[in-house]
Amino acid sequence: MKRNDSGLFIVIEGIDGTGKSTQAKLLQKALLDQGQTVTLDHEPSDGPYGKILRDSATTGRLSPQEELDLFHKDRKQHVDELIIPALNRGETIILDRYYFSTMAYQGQRGFDQKEIQNTNLSFAPNPDILFILDLSVDHARKRIGARGDNTNEFEKHDALQYCRDTFLSVKNETFAHVIDASKTIQEVHQQMLNISLNK
Question: Which pTM was predicted?
Fold first, then answer.
């Protein structure tokens, strides 16, 4: 999907434990301090389709096809109602997870990653900046355990490795930046901020 706007669209991806949410909040604050109008959001969204997906984490997972369909419906609504209007107003959007996560996690359930990507690109714009927060699976699992979270099926070693490999598979896109998430929170933040301000 081609864009015709003056906004800045930033996406943060990476396996669980890489610090996406922390870095998203830090980046939002720093860009607000620079005088930008910034919206921080996440996927699945807080819309009706996203709510079903979020609820399924506790009520039981949906079938692979139902889950994939809901991700696409949720993203299309998110793009139409939030992302594109904000970008058209010249604002900055920071998104915690996007279609790259669908490629990773639904690809892990057996769907073709390229097909997922092409479906999304028919209605969802590419980001201006994609930050891939990268961390070894063993390091990520230690962080997940340290924060007291239980390891769910998504976070088992092989599944996490598959998802990490998927994120890294798009590292050659012109908008992609791989960030070493093993560095300190401040070091990672400063690197992301510098890239964002120079875009």
Answer: 0.92
